[in-house]
Structure formats: C-alpha cells, structure tokens
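Honest question from a wet-lab person: if I give you the sequences of every part of a complex, can you actually get the arrangement of the whole thing, not just the pieces? Trying it with mine:
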Amino acid sequence: MELAQSLQQIQPSYIREILSAATAEGVISLAGGLPDGDKFPLALMEESLLSLPNRAELFQYGNTAGYAPLLTHFKARFELPDTHTSLVCTGSQQALDLIARAYINPSDNVVMEAPSYLGALQVFGLAQANIISVSQEADGPNLQELEQCFAEQKPTIFYAVPDFHNPTGVCWTLSVRQKVAALCEQYSVTLVEDVPYRELRFTGEALPLVSSFCPDHSLVLRSFSKIATPGIRLGVVTGKAESIDPLITVKQAADLHSSIPMQAVLLDLLTHDGFDKHLSDLQALYKSRYEVLATQLTAKLPKYCHFNQVDGGMFIWVTLPPCDDFALAQAAIDNNVAVVPSSVFYQQGEKVTPALRLNFTNASVEELAIAVDRLVAVISAECGE
Amino acid sequence: MELAQSLQQIQPSYIREILSAATAEGVISLAGGLPDGDKFPLALMEESLLSLPNRAELFQYGNTAGYAPLLTHFKARFELPDTHTSLVCTGSQQALDLIARAYINPSDNVVMEAPSYLGALQVFGLAQANIISVSQEADGPNLQELEQCFAEQKPTIFYAVPDFHNPTGVCWTLSVRQKVAALCEQYSVTLVEDVPYRELRFTGEALPLVSSFCPDHSLVLRSFSKIATPGIRLGVVTGKAESIDPLITVKQAADLHSSIPMQAVLLDLLTHDGFDKHLSDLQALYKSRYEVLATQLTAKLPKYCHFNQVDGGMFIWVTLPPCDDFALAQAAIDNNVAVVPSSVFYQQGEKVTPALRLNFTNASVEELAIAVDRLVAVISAECGE
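Yes, you can. This is the full assembly:
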C-alpha cells in the first residue's frame, strides 16, 4: 500500500534516535521530557488501584466524553461556566490531534511560536496545515508579528504553550496574555492553550490562563502526565460545548473512549487529601534540580552561550553561537550526556536558532553537575573556548 | 470555527440515541454489543491489579508500539513470522483509524460488505474514502461482485469481519476464505481482517484466519474487549513490519502510546493459568443464551421473519418484510425492548435490507424470553400477524 499524502510530508523523527541513544549505559540524559519516576504518587493511588478488582462497572464500555464522575470533578476543578464542557482524552496529545482533525482542512493556516512543541508540529503536519511561525520573545510571542499574521493570513488556530514553554521555558507575562486574548477575539482566531507544565511552577505566583481572557475563543489542553503519571495516558480538553462536541464525534471513531479504570484512579488521586502536598513536594524537588543546573551552567558555560532563567516547567534552553546543533548533540552523546538540538523544534526549512534543550526533572543533582561538565567540554571543543 | 470538510460528511449517529433509550428503567436491551459485565475475568486480573502500586516503571512514558513484554507475547501467541510485528492500540477501533489515516487519501476506494460495522463506516467516512459495498451471502461476500470490484475499481483496502460478522453473525466458509485471500493477492488489495468475535465461537471448530492465506496482503485487528474487558481499551494490529511502521508514526501523533498499566494487566491475564477456562466458560454461557433466543424466535416470530443460525459471536440478525425499520425499533423501545434497526449498518443512500440486530450476550435467559414476546408483539402490530 502507498502511504497517504498526509504521511508523505512527515519527516523521520530524529528525537527518537536521540532518546534511544540517551538510554545507553553510562549516559546521563537531559534529553527527554520525563517526570521523575521515583516521585510518582503511587502511594496516593494505591487505595484506588487496590479497589479496581471490586469495581466491575469500570471495566465495561464507557461514554466517549469520559467517566462521568471525573467530568463532574473537572467542571468544579476548572470552574467551567455552564456553556463549557470537558472531554477526557488518551493524553493531551490526543486532544490536540482531535482538534486538528475536527477543524483543520489541508492548507488551512495554523499559527505557532518558533521554536515549538514537536508533537504539535507532528499533529499539524499530519493535518497538512500550513504552519505559520511567529517569533518568540522573552515574555511571549512577538505581538506585532502575531497581529500582522492574524490580520493578513486569517488563521484558524493559534497553538501556544504560555506556561513554561517546551522547549524554551518561556512564561508569558500578564500583559502579553491579555493582548493575545484580545487579538484572538478581534480576529476570531481560536487559541489552543496547551498547559502541561502549568502546575510545575516553583517560583512566583500563577498567572491567569490566557483563555480566561477569551473563554469563547479558546480550547484548553491539560495533561496529567507531569503531575500524576504519563503511563496512564490521560489528559483533558475544555471549551465551549459546541466546540467540544465535534471532538467527541472524532474520538468515537478514533478510540471510542479512554481507559475507564485509569480515569477512576485519576479522579481518586486528584481528590486525595495528599495530592496538594504531592504537588508542592514535586515543585520543590524540581526547583532544587533547576537551581543546580542553572548554577552550574552559569559558572561553567563559555561566555558565548546564554540561557533563560525559568520559574517552572522542565527545561532550560541554552543558545549557542552558529554551529551544527545536531553534530554537537551527537558529540555530547559520545561524551555520555544526552541533550536535544534545537533543529527538531522547528519546521523543516525554517531559520533555526542554534540551541540545546536541557531537561532538569529526571536526573539527580549529582548527575546534573556531572552532565554540565561533560556538556561544557563538548561545547568548548566544538565551538571554541 | 468551521468544521473540517471530513467531518461535514459524518451523519449523526442514531445508534447513540437508541443505546441511550435502551438504558431506561424497565427496558430489556438487546441493542448494544456489550459483553456480560458479571463475567469479566476480574478474579484472574486481581493479582496483577494489586501489584500495580509496586510497579512504578509501568507508569512512566512508554514505547509507542506497546509494552515490550506484551509485544513479545503477541509474537508467540499469534505465531507471527519474523517479518511481521504488532502494534498495541487503544482498542482495535484505533487500529482501524490508524490504518485509514496512514493509507487512505480522500476518494480512495475501500471495499466493505453491506451491511457493515458502524465504527468502520465512521472511520472510512472521516477518511473521506469512497466506500464500495459488496453483498453479503450466507457464507461470506459475493465473490463475483468482489472480483469485479477489485478488477474494475482498484480498491486500496477490503475491510471484513469474517468471524461472526457484526451485525449479521455470518462466518465465512473455508472455501470463501481461500478465494478472498487469492483475490487480495491477485489484485494487490490489502485485507483488513477485523476479528473481535473470533474467540467467541461456541459451535464447531475455528477456521483459519483469511489472512493466513495472504499474510503479506493483510492486516489483522484483534480486540480484547470481548474476551478480557472493554473498559481497558486495548486491541492490537499485526502485519508486515513495513506496513505497521507508518501506523506507529501516526499513533505517535495520535496519543503517543496506550495505557501501560493496562497493557501489563492484559499480559498477566492472557498468560494466567485460568484464562482458557474463562474463555470456555464465556463461550458456554453465550451459547446457552443464544440457544434460548434462537429457540424463542423460531417458536414465536411471524412466518415472514427469518434469521440466521450462528456458531458464535454476539448477534442474531432478523430480516423483516418491507417496513420502516426505525419506526419498528422505536415501537419496540416503547414496548420496553431495545434492538438496532438495520439502516444504521449501511451507508446513507444505500439499499437497506429491513432487519433488526439482536444481541444475546448481555441479557439473562429469562430476560431474553421476555424480550422475544415483547418484540414479536411489536413486529406483529407493525408488519401484520
């Protein structure tokens, strides 16, 4: 069989090869976006997991929209207005895919910041969307570019990760949030606000969701991979009921519904007395790792490298002088440290800022310190002292 | 946002309304395709479920293709040649969706028997395929029509449910299997062999998979919803590695992977000493229910109704004289018995054989007997004595 045209545009994913090499013996990996498996809240999930053999009703076919008690919980947890609703998805990745399938025709314009989340590039690539990039500044997207793009290109969707962006860690300021929301309303663009890292803030106060300023022009994707566990594959998309309904139609064809026992366990976890402490413990742990990584990088990186300070999330973004970022990442693996080169976060053919994405959530502080030494040696060798 | 063109072709699903009405107090439902929830093998799954809190590695991100030990098990269980491989999916429904996304362009020809599985009609409708129907006979598809279609229309895929078809219960004979496989090879058509009911045979010996006669021109979809439990949402597609690889690419964008804890529990169930007995108990139970339903129908249906004897599966298909099958199904619900009218199993605009699909796996023998009385009263009132 020949591949469908939509698939012929999909590039091989180099990040898979990097992640595969990153698991080799002796390699310290700052490459993946993995939460720390030792901190999964299994103790808080235990009672729920142990109850499953006695809850046969969870093992029958369920509703496509999700396990009803979980949907009720989301309504309250996310303070959804009566006109809004939730759809439980097989990870927030699926929510994004359903949105693209329900609303994007081939050649439709979709706006993203550059660089951007690889999984979103894949989804919109499969949908054969025309992806338009706007530059990312230290406080969010370049607003002038964004307005010009909205006005001239009439995009359907603006996909964004406003809280601790993947890969750059950028968190939009309040002012940028309000202005982007106003632009979405003015130009009737739907904001797809992807917030997997939002609850991983370890410094400062949470800012309002961008979509709180344009609730009827937005869909919000939430993930439970970072605050619960990724293996259960659960996320949720919220928005106006009339915008969610078509997603339910697509999901019915895509997988009927997501695992009901896992949805019940998630509900039990989110409503467990210990969940808030689990979250603050996680934030404190990641903060301590971030601080070690940032301190070591500040002390040891060559002067021509720069990196962003972050207030949360999972990543530090180190910019480099002009160089072959792939060759640098390969040399790093040869020196037993894995990182992700910036090219993978851009569309093919797009102007790439040479940089490396470093994850700080899945290595110990001891490993992080060693990793910096190894990485600095490679950068110095490849780009000069 | 406007709906994508692919969604504008999707008809509202009347079966949802019927299934919703079927859950009303006092209604005996023969409408759904539900396995008996009281017979879920939770006792066999218990040890595995109880072990989950101590298996943190199952809760981390996993491989898109599936949990490695489960893939190894499938290799042996399904006796896959070295050139073939498995992809674990979020239900076999997802496997079908991934196939359509990877291999079907809008307007490509896809062949199905008529009537056909509603979920397949939805998937190929979303893919904007041109669905070509061939008639179904008592022993499988009309071979003359099928060959003519293959020769003249050059379809990409022939989607089929050869074991205890949904909705008709038809099981292809050995001779038909061999001839269809030969046609697929001759005309380079990929057979998508969907076998969710294959292990629910309660009479006679299993026949070889059609794909066993054309292993390199086929993909096989297996479901664990009927023999394990539907709520865990797990199925698997097997075929040539080069045909499975593109499905993995699409799945990575669609949901990254399916729930790993559920995959581990499924593996423990399939390798449990008690699994074969669970399966034979289930077959015996469904056989006893089928026999009551068939006996009651034979005794009580008006002479102008006919139904197929089946050797397994979940459904009996009762054909009717010319009538409004939807009105009949609605009258049945008003008389407290729910069934599915045949129209939902055909493409819009296609010639429909008036019929009703009756499920016999989710009601007790007492309920089945009462249901027949209620149904016969409605048929007699609507179609004459």
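Two things worth pointing out. Chain A is about 40% helix and 15% strand. Residues 275-300 of chain A form the longest helix (26 residues).
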